[in-house]
Amino acid sequence: MKKRYEALLVLNIKGTEENAKEVTERIEGEFQKEGARVEQVQKMDRRQFSYVAGPLDAGYFVNFVFMAEPQAIDKLRARFKLDEEIYRQHIQKVAPKQDRPVRTPRPAKVAV
pLDDT tens, 87-106? Predict the structure, then answer.
């Protein structure tokens, strides 16, 4: 049974933001190879890190929301760990997408 996940990836695009689109499309293909269905891709632009904990001081942040089997998550993590263009990754399970219920307005109170 597929579950809903969110993956925040920090890309090492080596200073060229034009390369970010190509890398993002390639990563989206990696999700699809594992049988995941990508619902949303949110490109959050290049951001400076609050502290430097490695060789980079900034990265291009991309957020993916997708549906996948739980077994696919370990495969994706292992694949992303070996990818030189992905600097950091964080994948977590999120609540299933639910349709909002239609709210009916309350009757107005009448002052007496």
Answer: 999 999 998 877 666 666 67
